[in-house]
């Protein structure tokens, strides 16, 4: 039986349009299905399937709606890290990109088969130690709130919220990012093309005018 497990998307959009990165799974978190994935659960399937390009990038778990390709997949201390490229040449890929940029969608979900697990009766959860990963999907309603969106790096942030996330992902605390965005976003609008991509300059401006 194939199981769908969902996680909020934590990703960064790179300079190339349609490129994103984030965590498709976070270790040691009890999800809404009462499952917990342990570190190491993806190691084998990454070698066997991801290396051959067999893990698909889908829209809402729909096999008939691929929206791009997965370009990198690995485990780290936090979870399953993924990088992908949305296909902007197709309507769904372009729509997904627009939704990500505007934080209308912030979730990733994995489709997999469980190969090795044990049940923790004290917590009432299933601990997954090995699985076969089939696909990663962009989803609307994630089941796990542990991994949240930190930042959407665009050519130009289109909203105050996007600008706030941009700052938070680049060294500002949430409080500082909120204050800086509120004061700095309107001022930076006319000259954004000059400062975009120059975080040292942007940080200096905001630190002096807003936080200092």
Question: How would the blueprint of this fold be written?
Answer:
Layout lengths: L2 E6 L10 E8 L8 E3 L5 H6 L7 E4 L2 E14 L3 E8 L4 H11 L5 E14 L4 E15 L20 H9 L5 H15 L3 H4 L3 H13 L1
Parallel strand pairs: 3-8, 4-8
Antiparallel strand pairs: 1-7, 2-6, 4-5, 5-6, 7-8
Describe the structure.
Helix 3 (160-168) crosses helix 4 and helix 4 (174-188) crosses helix 6. Strands 1, 2, 3, 4, 5, 6, 7 and 8 form an 8-stranded mixed β-sheet that branches. A hairpin with a 2-residue loop joins strand 4 and strand 5. The chain folds into 2 domains: 3-139, no CATH class; 160-211. It contains 6 helices and 8 strands. Residues 147-153 and 190-197 have low confidence and may be disordered. The protein starts with a strand and ends with a helix. It is globular and about 50 Å long. It is α+β, with helices and mostly antiparallel strands and 212 residues long. Helices cover 27% and strands 34% of the residues.
Q: In a few lines, what is going on in this structure?
A:
With 212 residues, the protein is an alpha+beta fold. It folds into two domains: 3-139, no CATH class; 160-211. It has helices at residues 43-48, 91-101, 160-168, 174-188, 192-195, 199-211, and strands at residues 3-8, 19-26, 35-37, 56-59, 62-75, 79-86, 107-120, 125-139.
